[in-house]
Queue: 2 jobs
Job 1
Amino acid sequence: MKRMKIRLRVKLLASFLVVILLSLSALGVAFYTISARQLERSTENQMTQIINNAVHHTNLYLSSYQRSMVALLSNLSVKKYIDLPSDREEYENYRYMTDIRDSIVEPVWIRNPEISALYIIGYNGNALYYFNSGTEPSFSPKDTAEQIEYFKSHTDGSGRLTIINHTIQGKNAAPMLTLIRRIRGLSSPDMKGFVGIEVKSEELSTLWKGIDLGEDSYFFIVDDQGQIQYHTDPSKVGKQISHKLASEMADAGTSMFRSSAEGSKRAYISRKADYSGWNLVVSIPNSQLVKPLETTRMLIFIVAALTFLCALYLANHFGASITNPIRSLMKGMSQTEKGNWEFIPLPKRHDEITELIVRYNTMVNRLSELVDIVYQSELKNKEMQAERQKAEFQSLQLQINPHFLYNTLETVVCYAVIQDSDEISEIVGALSYMLHYSVRTNLEEITVANELKHVMYFMVIINHRIGRNFEIDMRVSPDLLLRKMVRLTLQPLVENVFQHAFRYGVEDHHAIIIDAGEEGDGFWVSVEDNGCGMTPERLEELRAKLRENRLADDDGEAGQLKGGIGVANVHRRIQLVFGEDYGLTVESGLEQGTRMIMRMPRSAAKQLAGNGAEAASKPELLPPGFSGKNDSWHAG
């Protein structure tokens, strides 16, 4: 007993420890993961905001130069000058140079004094150069031709603004940014030359000097060639970034990414400026990002350790409070094991354990009574169900078992033969077969072939009744003829068509199709007509009748066939033989015909034993003229 107490107590303590460790681990991992994500998202948002502001101010700054260029592009004097022939007079060149300077260039100097140079160059060699300050260089026709070729290879052919690191002022000039675009002449829609503005690179760098990202973090700008145009470290301006960093930057797009391309692992995020096509990049060392996470992780470990120690003490105390009362309960139950008491005795003290013993004794007593009641109830229900099914079978069998009529019909056939009446002989012969088919066996399962043969003899009688040969389109595949189905279910559906679908008489366009098929583990046989169909209300009424899952009454309710076996009875007979999952379904539309589908379980294609096998094995399985798939047959 002592060993048992120790084992239970240790087991409880171990269980508590597992729960505590799992809870602390899940809480720590969840808290750390959420904190890491929030911190990274906050850092990314901060970097995104910084770089978006830089892009915005850069685009605003460059757009002011774009407006200055628009004035040049729309000026008639500029367009006329572009169209001048290369052998123009020197006076013409001077006149246009003066007009353009007075009307456009001088206002541009006033609005944008930081512009260093402005020039207009035509493909034919015409060129006007304007410089804001300093020594104005002169250019020979050869220099102009070289400039034209350079700008043709470095500008957009459609006339879009292009920003390039280039200057026509010579190698000794300060670093410049050239904003240039192609221009059309006045007489032709084709591009005829260039309009360019040069700005000192240091003018743009003043926009970004105020960006402060913290220790060892920096901001830089690279052009589309990978050359650094601005960097918080001036010594890196003009250098190329590594191919690896350029590739990773292109793959990341606007998302933050981490890379070790610059030696140490850093986080980067970049944006492309609209006017210049430059990439503006913010870079922060990865150690700066993970430092708050390391602090958070250490705090989580300290708190988890203190919590675990407190929980360990409480778990040990709680386990003792459970095992001690259980030991008292085990001593009482051991007496019951010896057979001294029928129920576990109640202890003197009244607490939860005492209540547990009281409930246990009550439960044993009640369960014993309930088991006996349930057993008797199940037995009674099974007997009632068997009696009900037997009564339903007998009730339906009484409708189709007239032995005396079969014997009488045999006598009528004899008289018809003596009187040489072929029609009476054929009708009575068919009816005789049908009655013999209904009484010769007690088996409820029969083959599809037997049911089709029964339908064919029924059609012999129908054809004589309607006074014409009516063909039924048989589409049953031969390999389905030995599938099992319920006896006397197909002929009632065919009879239902003549009574209800062709209620005003059989016309030439009327047709009945009998088909069969397999779906998964199921097998179906359908009877389809092109008669008057049913209204939605009538169809729902019939379906409701089928959902009741009981034999139809004899008072003409929905689904009842006058003088025959009702649709509801066909549905119920299938369910009684194969189960509630099978039966009859109806599809119909007003003036669109009706389709009744019998669904049964799929069974092996084998001959039935007993009387059923006897019918299935006869050579006259089907009347002459019926071969199976897609065949039509008529009696007469």
Job 2
Amino acid sequence: MGRRSMRSNRTLFERESELAAVDEALGELTGLRADGAEPAGQPRGALLAFAGPAGLGKTTLMAEVRRRAAARGCTVLSARGGDQEQRVAFHVARQLLQPQFAGAAEADLRAQLGSWYDIVGPALGLCAPTDGAPPDPQGLRDGLDWVLTHLAVQRAPMVLALDDAHWADPESLGWLAAFAPRTEELPLLVVVAYRPDELPDHAESFRGLPGRAGGRPIDLEPLSAVAVAGLVREALGTHADDAFCRECWAVTAGNPFETVELTAKVHDRGLDPTEAGAHLLRDLAAAVKGSGLIARLERLGTSTVRFAWACAVLGTEIHPMLAAAVAGLGHEEAADAADALRGARILTGAETLEFVHPLIATAVYRAIPSGVRVALHGQAAWCLVNDGQGPSAAARHLLETHPDGDNWVVQQLRAAAAETLRSGAPDAARSYLARALREPPPFEDRAAVLHELGSASLLTEPATTVNHLRAALEEPIADQELRHRIVYRLSQVLAHSDRLAEASDTLAREIRVTDDARVKLRMVSEQFMWDAFRADEPDHPSRSRRLTKLADRLKGRDLTERYIIGLRTWDAVLRGEPAHVALHHAERALAGGLGWAEPDRGFEVPVLVALAFMYADRPGRTEELFAAGIADFERQGWRGAHLSFGYTLLAYVRYRRGRLAEAEDFVRAGLRLAERVGPGTPAHWYAVGILIEVLLARGRVTEAAQTAEDYAFSEPFPAAVVFPDAQTVYGELLLARGLTKDAVNQLASAGRRLDPRGIRNPAWCPWQLHLARAESHDTPERAVTTALEALSRARQFGTPSAIGQALRTAAEVSSGSARVKYLEEAVAHLECSPAGYELACALVALGTELRRTGRAAEAAEYLYRGLDAAVQCGADGLVEEARDELAAAGLRPRRLHSTEMDTLTSRERMAANLTVDGLSRSEIAKKLHTDEQTVVRLLSAVYRKMGTDSSGLREALEGT
């Protein structure tokens, strides 16, 4: 460590602009100027990135950053990437965060980390991984975000310094690259340094992170001749002449590291720093790097060379005794070697060793003969395991060894993969298992390794997972339980890759050869589930009959039976059986428990059971089940597709309840999560389809059309059944845009796809209702027939919301007195339902129809009620429609209700009611004796407090 301290105390030549940026950032972080004399403004964080080739002084600059940060009272988190540690998952994250929790007891750690303990604890090495399902990578990143944010707020101001970021492990670097843009929101300064030409592909986003250099890193330049002369004279004395200094600059090209090392060599040789000795500099400079450095190392003796090689293999934070074991040296011999390497300025430190500079470490590592290097890695792996550091510490070394059929290597790699996977690093686990497969494993273990490899690839490479699992099934498998797990996993990943037919066929083949009755029942339940999601299932009615017969005789004794009963629930919903039948089976399925995060189970059936309550007009129960399910996901750290489905479908529940603003917030959150998973996945189709539905209900047709275009929401539609049905939503969008013929084609096609499968419930898929509206433009008689057929199906299902919605559509496509009759009945049904938006639509439609038939007094009542209901729903387009109808009837919107007024100040109340009375902003300003900007602020406050644009507020706020 002494050598590093000596170097860090040197003058930083020609780094004034970089240090000025550091001081400015620290000033904004701490709220003080560099001299600490007076406040510099509200504290805020930032990102600083320094980039430059090897040897340009990044490490020295980072040491100065840490020194200045500590001098200003900042908490400093520090880490350094290592060439040999790039394959160690979360190596950098552990360096940064582990010291902040050092020495804490488990109870204290649980208190500090809260619900994130089991998710981030294993990744940070704070606790052992649990036996449950691993967190998905995004969930773990969210947990690390929380930990760093929490620390930044608790221990503000904070500086995070990462040196050699180009060598950081992918998991840590990906997390930090995603987190860094948030620094300006926190009392946190992130400073990174890296070599731009060595930044790996997985960190390309790191180059464009926001920073103080206009979104680009601050590039370090080589030193000028003047700066090199200053550095030389600082090291060798002021008598070093100009010619000598110029030659130093010439032979080092202004590289600070090489200049420092060259001056040290000059000092060791006792060379006079004058023009007379300048001709020797080129040879001395050659000894500082590359082959010259290695030649200098070799002159130190065989044992010293071997010790240096062992240190290069081990990487950073090298324990001398461990290096001695790897090198095969005794204690005294190793101590002598370490002393010699410190004297030669190759190593530094005492209790923990490290190379003086990464360039030296790289040169020494590359100089190791390939065969010896492989052997040293193997020895390092054995020594680490023998030292009690475990398989995960040894795994990166085993990756560098040659396959040799060694079962010990296979077992260590499998153990390391299991631990790493449960810690949330599937990519690292996959690399360990792929290497284990090449060893190769014993014949009888090959299927198990392939299964583990497939499971590790599940979240990141589904196609690769399928290949591995299919290969596993081709192996002889003595353990039938293992075979069954492989089949379950394979069917699951096929289904989640939109290959539902293959998932079903995989299970069907295994069902035929399985003797165990309970296993066969589990496989049958899985097959029923994937077939339920198949848009192209050839024989849905037959499956439905078999499912009904099976489910009706099951008692729900275990999870498999409850899953089958849950699937019976969903089948009843799709087929439009009376709602009480679906609810009966839903309660049976839930009676023994139906968790959303059961090990080795999908979450699909619990979701379907929960949604059955929504379609049966009991959305409150649905939301209770969703809240519990989402909590299960978050406890497991599942924040990818699982949580996306949770938020997206919760948005659908809010949409069907008529709480459109909340629905939009939830579905946009779900869409953000779905985008992490990737386009074209079922999660993506669900989120985009629901968002379009919500936007159409809110009257934002143009935005809905743009959303469909942005996300390619059009043909071809997914092979998996999604809800709302994607093709039906697309047809609804075409209809809203006035493209009626195209809408008819799409909606009729949806009917031809769903009807033969027995899916006849308009509450689940209202394709007939939208088709009737589309047909009414050119074939009104056919539209009536279509609407009445949908109404008949809705009456069979029997829920007020389904019947009311169908009645409203029947009214829309009918003529004469039938319109009022249907609408009055629709309102009566919808008033008994939770479908707030549908009720608002029916009220406005009935009021409009009554106005047109001359029944003005009755029309006013329904229009006012419809307006209030539309405002509460956030249905902006319907609000405008109701206001227009009231205006056509010669009526004004009512003043705000007294209960609504309770949250407003007196001036806000006056401004709101003057707006309702139709006054302009300038007229309101005069009456309130103020200016228009104040009026805008008052109305904006009303808007925020009311949560709607009720009673003309939006018009009053136009232009703000």
